[in-house]
Design goal:
76% helix, 4 helices, 107 residues
């Protein structure tokens, strides 16, 4: 994800730190740990699982929200990069129809 984040932002000409990615990873990892502990303690029926279920649910929701924010930000950066490429080609000659045909090697 880090490579996608930086690669996309670089193409779009944006530069933003990876604080958002850190929080996303932390929420995901804490959720994973708590859900695993909750599952194992439920199998043994030794602890009260309601606290772990609440903690796990909180981090599950936080992870989902942060995922949506990360995906939206990367999508916007991809759109901006696409627009930059299109603007960069303005004023150039259009490709001729002959140039768009497959070559002999491509047949």
């Amino acid at each position: 994800m880090k490579e996608v984040w930086y690669g996309t932002l670089q193409m779009a000409g944006r530069y933003r730190g990876h604080t958002l990615l850190r929080w996303w990873w932390i929420a995901y990892l804490v959720h994973s740990v708590t859900i695993n502990y909750e599952s194992s303690s439920a199998a043994n029926a030794t602890d009260d699982n309601s606290a772990w279920a609440l903690i796990s649910t909180f981090f599950d929701i936080a992870s989902a929200i942060l995922t949506l924010i990360v995906v939206r930000y990367v999508h916007e950066a991809e759109q901006e990069a696409s627009y930059r490429l299109q603007v960069g080609t303005l004023g150039q000659e259009e490709a001729k129809a002959q140039e768009l045909l497959p070559t002999q090697e491509e047949y």
